Amino acid sequence: MVFMMRGGLYLGLALLLAPHGGCTVDRLTAAGRPCSIDAACGPNMICGPTGHCVPVGGRDAAADSPRRDGAADAVKIDRSGADGPLHDLKPTSDLKPPDLKLQPDLKPSPDSGPLTLVNESFTTGLGKLTPKQGTWTVSGGEAVQSSADENDNYATATVPVTDYTVESVVTVHSIKGIPTIYEGAGVAARVQPPLIANVPAAQYACVVLEDGDFLALAEGDGKGTFLKLMVQKATTIKLKTPYRVRLVVKGKDLTCSLPDNNLSVKASDSTLSWGVVGLTSLHAHASWSYLLVTSP
After folding, report:
1. Is 77 domain-assigned?
2. Residue 78 vs residue 130, higher pLDDT
């Protein structure tokens, strides 16, 4: 308090010694600290626009940070640099991959594999097969032909094409034992009704012949008493032993094989150009585990 005399009267003039910004000298605070009427800034400091002490001519650091009191005039973050926090970025857990949906309407391309024409597993019956000759039953998931009296006991199924592959697993349980003919069982293709009663049907047959110990490709013309062997290859064929047999007919090309034994025989013949598929036995009691017919 300074007292001055003017005209014989004492005039008291109170001067507030405080830095710019309205802060008092009762309490001094350092740079960056909040300042107010009760807490003034220190020497060479001023109370900044956000209520924090800053050096004279300096920048209020609080103005570079977002307000935490929810005020509408909070300063936005400058994301042009790498120093500021990116508070509005979503956590990576919120980012989802695109919704990839399967397309069930897509159809396989023509080269995706063979087309299944017949697939019988004989679990409840013969399925599409129709017995033509012999004694046919289903037992233990197999088609069984139990008569060994006939030279051509067979059952057939219709297919809509003339070129195809016929496959099955066949087991010869017993044979008639006629020394003058070969006896066994297998699969048949392009089967046509016989032209004369009580003779084997016209067909191409891929058979395992137990009494001759070979794999054979045979042909029936629908008129003769026996099938004619077109080509054969020696191998060991045992009774009560399953063999996977496969017959492929494509145009005039014929292939008979035992795929698991890496054994095959081939022939070329154009006598039979159409017909159904079948299982066949030649004076043999035999069984088949399945019948699979596919496009070649």
Report:
1. no
2. 130
